[in-house]
Structure formats: structure tokens, C-alpha cells
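User: I'm putting together a teaching handout on how multi-component assemblies are represented. Below are the sequence lines for each component of a complex, exactly as they appear in our records. Could you produce the 3D structure of the whole assembly as C-alpha cells, so the students can see both representations side by side? Please keep the chain order the same as the input.
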Amino acid sequence: MPISQPPARVYTVSQVNALIHELLETSFPELWVEGEISNCRAYPSGHTYMTLKDEGAQIQAVLFKGAAYAVKFKPQDGLKVLVRARVSSYVKRGDVQLILSAMEPREKGALQLAFEQLKAKLEAEGLFAEDRKKPLPPYPRRVGIVTSSQGAAVHDMITVLTRRWPGLEILVYPVKVQGDGAAGEIAQAVADFNAFLPDTDVLLVGRGGGSIEDLWAFNEELVARAIAASQIPIISCVGHETDFTIADFVADMRAPTPSAAAELAVPEQAAVLAQVAESRRRLLAATQERLRSLAERLDFARRHPFLQSPHRMYEERSKRVDELSGRLPEALRQVLLHAEKDLRLQMEKLDAFSPLKVLGRGYAIAERLPGREILRRAEQVRPGDLVRVRLHQGEIHCEVKDAQERRQA
Amino acid sequence: MPKKEDKPDFESSLQKLEGIVRELESGEKGLEESLELFEKGVTLAKGLTAQLEDAKRKVEVLTKEGGRLSRKPLSEAETGQ
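Assistant: Of course. Below is the structure of the complete assembly, with chains in the same order as your input.
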């Protein structure tokens, strides 16, 4: 359809998009929006693009790097989220989009979700596998501690370590255990121990109790990777009994508290001293017993008749030789007798298999005449046929009167 | 880092001692060998006990400066206790 009147004003596409953009940016307050993430793409730039949708509609959304930093979990397709957003548009295309400034999962806490995501990822990589766990040395000489220099944890660890195993060398590497940069410091400390003090026997990495936010550094991937890469065995101890962190899963051993970690790290000196004393007692007892038994053998040998009167030994032996020589001819005769009997038995057995022997036991061989066919079945003959029966001695000629096959059972 | 070699390893000394005790208890060794083992065992036990009893605790704090770790003794005030 032709345009009937010339237009009063003509806009370029850029102008329209700019107008839309301005209108959107100025006419909406910041909104809280609920929706499900789909088509989520994270770029190396740090920006994450996604679609937010519900049953009836969808809208583009973007989480820029600056805001993404504050979101601990990873936005994923299918995740229901609550976002804070301003409504805007992408000027180049005129698409309406939400620019997100905050995001939290709808069905569980953000930290809980982040924890689950990282745990699943590292578990899939095999970082929690039992066969990765290094054994703890039974008698460490040098123990490293990575924790805050403030607070009860470091004090508890040093107290328990030195009480149980006084000769220990303890190296404390103070780090921030919460807040910005804490994860980096913890990871660096673990790496430094491995780089500069690789003959440290065991590392205790942890902190005292706190909220999930306080303990968060121990749920960061950075810390998990540093612990996994450590050649020095690591005991983790974060918070209280019930707190489980990613660090606990990666560590070679998890202790419920810092004090418990110290107890796991070193044996109790008193127990080891007792063990040494016990070895010493057994050493003495065994040596005494050995000496006693050697002395007894010596005594026994000394009192033996041969030693008392050595010529008896010769007499004994000579008597024995005489006795054995006397028994020799008879023994030989017995052997020959036995062999002869054996031979006779074998020959009798052989004889029993001769066919003539079979006739001797009352069996007979029947042949049909005139063919001399050996009879095995009644149906080989008919009434009137002539049969020769060979016996052990002599033979009989017969005429068949009747022949019936007896069914064999 | 030859630190681990500069004094006999506690664990291997303890294992040696236990091995000697077992050998002696088996009662299979001759007089001379038994006495030799006894002497070795007593020396080991003495050394182990001394290692445990003479040991002094040594607690140091690490600080990183210019890409290197330096140590200094821990003063109680620093642990915040």
C-alpha cells in the first residue's frame, strides 16, 4: 500500500532503538524478578548471558562480570532464581533485556548451592578418592599450621601438640581465614610449605567455629586445589564437629576441631615412652631366658653318659652294627618270598582272561551250522536250524525247536 | 633438604628395637649373637627414650618477605592468648 501522505518525520533504526532504550531505562524502577534460567552461557570475559522464563514467557538477561563476582554459585540451566534487575535493551538489536545486579537461588541458599556445585565438580574429578589420601607419618618431627594468628584455634593446636609430643618443631603460617582474600592466603600458605619446607611431616589447615559465611574460604576451589596438590599430608579442621567443608573432603584426613587435628597429628609421648620401656623389659627378659636355656643345654650335655664316659659311645654303636648284620639274611629272604608270591598272583589274574577259562566256568559257545556264525541273539536262528554248542570239553550238535528273543530289561 | 637424615629417624629406630625383641624372643640365636642383639637393643631403647625426654618444643612463626619465608620464634602475645 503506498504511503498517501509524506511523513512528518522519519527516524533511523538507531534512533528508534535509542528511544526505546531511554524509555526502558527511565520508566522502570529496579525489579525483583523470579524465573528459571535457560540457555545459560558464561563467556571468558566474565559476563554470563541467559534467558529467564516462566510457563508463559521469556526474556533475555545478562549478568555482567562486576555483578557476577558477588554470585557465589554458578548460574545453570533449570535453576529457579530470584534476581534484582533493571529493564534495558540491547541497542544494536532492539532486544529488551534484564541487566542483573544480584541473583540468588530460589530453592536453597546461594552458599549451599555453591557448595554442592563445587563438591560435585571436584568429586567427578576424583579429588576426594580414597586412593589419593596420603598416610599420616606416625612420629612427625615438624608440623605446619595454617590458620589465623588470632583466635583460639592456633593456641589450642600448639597446646595439644606440645603436650602430647613435646619435642616437636611447630611452624605457624598465619593467614586470613575469612573475608576477602582469605582463600588466596590459605592456598598460598599450603603451596609455600610445599615449595620451601617440603620436609614438613604434616600440615594442619583450619580455623575455629563460625557461620557458614565465616567458614566460606574453606569451600573455595582455590583452597581445594592447593590441598589436593600438596605433597605434604594435610589434616583439615574447620569449625565444629558438624561443619563439613570442601577442604575436609580433599584433605588426607578430616578432624572435627583444631584440637582434634593436633591429636591426630602426633602420638602421645607417654604412650610411646611406655612402649619403649616395654620393649626394653622384654629385651632383658628374652636375653635372660636365652642365657638360662643355653646354660641348661650346656649342663645337660655335660651330664650325658657319653661325656661322662666317652668309650660307651663306641660300644653302643658297635653293638648296633652287629645286631643289624645278623638280621640281614632273613630280611633278604623275606623280600624274595614276597616277590615270588606277587608274581604268582599276577599270573593267575592273567590266566583268568583266557577264553578257554571262561568255558571252564560253565559257559558255552553256540554256532549256527553250517555257517559257524556265533550266536548272540535268539533271532539269529529259526526252528529246525542246526546249532553246534562248544563246551569246555567236547561239543554237542542240536536242532532248534523254538527261538524267542527275551526282551532285555 | 637433608634435615631428615641428620639424626636417626625415630620411627625406624623404634621398628628396629621391636625387631630385635622379637628375634631374641624366638630363642633361635646363639649365645654371642643374643648378647650382641641385647646390647644393640638396649642402646636403641636408651636413644629413643632420650630423644623423647630431652626434646624441647620449638614454635616459630613464618612470614613471607620478598618471595622468601623467614622464621621467628613465637611470642605468646602473637597467638592472641
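A couple of points students might notice: The helical segments of chain B are 10-26, 31-54. The radius of gyration of chain B is 20 Å.
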